[in-house]
Each structure stands twice: as structure tokens, then as C-alpha cells.
Design brief:
GO terms for molecular function: methyltransferase activity. The chain has 222 residues and is α/β, with parallel strands linked by helices. The protein contains 7 helices and 7 strands, in the order H-H-H-E-H-E-H-E-E-H-E-H-E-E. The protein has a single domain, classed as Vaccinia Virus protein VP39 (Rossmann fold).
Length: 222
């Protein structure tokens, strides 16, 4: 997420890590499947893929994807969430950083998949959303995927009203050089219908085009 007054920080005060972890532990203990996002991503990946979990929180998804054999990097601006991730998976790569300035972290580009689950996009600092999408697109390899999950109404958000529409989000993705491939209503792959309250979107970076819109054999005009 972004540190520039992001909505998540305003909701939690940056101290939600342990409570968030306990919530999912209780769900798992009661028999709920807490790995739907990881299973969804794994089905789209080849073995040992490089995954960026953007807004990784306590690391639940990245840890599961690593268990499935993928190479995962998690990034979050909430230090309390990262503390849980580092405790639970100390050998994985966890980075503290603002998604609007992802390029400042020195990440090697060429990720097979960038994931922004858990309402990361709607909870960003207002006005930073296009920059975050551009940053995520920039770290993908040609053919790489951006997968997002977000609430579109108050019922599916920890907020009184939605902050992002799919029209806006798809526009930001198009501007970043990404193409919509598929859209679902759930991480189980239920079909999305217009007006739905939650959307799981799969965008891809086309082969041969970089995130700024240039052919990969070309550069910007002088």
C-alpha cells in the first residue's frame, strides 16, 4: 500500500498485524479454506514462478505460494503486518515499502505475477492508485500477470463507501500497458456479472510491449 495517508493506515493506525493474523487463524481452525487466493494464482503459474505479493500483509498468501514451490517477495507499508510475516516465514523476502514508489526498493524486474489481494487497491492513499498500477506493471515480464481482488461496494469493503470503480481501474491498467484477460466474482472462479460487489481481475502485460506503451525493441522518442 501507500504510506501517503492510505486508507488502511487510517482504519488501523498501523497496528493491525497481530489481530489480522488471529482472525485468519480462527477461520482456519473453524474449517474455512484460507488459501483461495494462493490456489487461484497457482493455477495460472508455471512451477517456481516469481511472485510479487504487493500489500502482502501478514504474508498469508505469499507463504502458501512459497509452500507450493514459487519464489515470493512480499511488500507492505504496515510494519506491524510485516512483523508477523517475518516471524512466520523468516527465510522469505519481506520488504517495507510504499507501492506508489516500488521502484525505490531495487526489485529485479521480470516477475511472472504481481498480486494485489485483500482490497489493496481500494485502500491506497487517494490519488496514488494510477501510480501503483504503473509500478506493478513495470515489474512484470512480458506476458506476466497482474491479479487483483477488490470490493466494489460497502458490503465488501471495510469502508462506508467504495473508492474505486472497475471502469477507473481498467483505465489505469490500460494506461500502464496491461490488458484485461479475465474477471471473476470470487477467488473460486465464479463468473463476474456487472454490478457485482467484488471482482477478481486478471490483467496481463502483452508480449513485446513495455509498461510505458513502447515496443520492447524501441525506446521513447528523443
Amino acid at each position: 500500500m501507500s504510506s501517503q495517508g492510505d486508507r488502511w493506515a487510517k482504519l488501523t493506525g498501523g497496528q493491525a498485524g497481530e489481530d489480522y493474523a488471529r482472525r485468519f487463524a480462527r477461520l482456519a481452525e473453524s474449517g474455512h479454506d484460507i488459501h483461495g487466493e494462493a490456489a487461484f494464482c497457482d493455477a495460472l503459474l508455471t512451477p517456481a514462478a516469481r511472485v510479487l505479493d504487493a500489500g502482502c500483509g501478514t504474508g498469508r498468501i505469499a507463504i502458501r505460494l512459497a509452500e507450493l514451490g514459487h519464489r515470493c517477495t512480499g511488500v507492505d507499508v504496515d510494519r506491524s503486518m510485516l512483523a508477523v510475516a517475518r516471524r512466520d516465514a523468516p527465510t522469505q523476502e519481506w520488504l517495507h515499502g510504499d507501492l506508489a514508489h516500488l521502484d525505490s526498493l531495487g526489485l529485479e524486474p521480470g516477475f511472472d505475477l504481481a498480486l494485489a489481494a485483500g482490497n489493496v487497491i481500494p485502500l491506497l492513499a487517494p490519488g496514488t492508485e494510477p501510480a501503483v498500477v504503473r509500478q506493478l506493471a513495470a515489474v512484470l515480464r512480458a506476458g506476466g500477470l497482474l491479479i487483483t481482488g477488490m470490493g466494489l461496494d460497502a458490503e465488501h469493503l471495510p469502508l462506508p463507501e467504495p473508492t474505486v470503480t472497475l471502469t477507473e481501474f481498467d483505465h489505469w491498467c490500460t494506461e500502464a500497458g496491461l490488458t484485461l484477460r479475465q474477471r471473476f466474482a470470487t477467488w473460486d472462479g465464479d463468473p463476474y456479472r456487472p454490478g457485482g460487489g467484488y471482482a477478481v481481475s486478471v490483467h496481463s502485460r502483452p508480449e513485446g510491449v513495455d509498461p510505458r506503451g513502447f515496443r520492447e525493441t524501441e525506446g521513447p522518442s528523443a
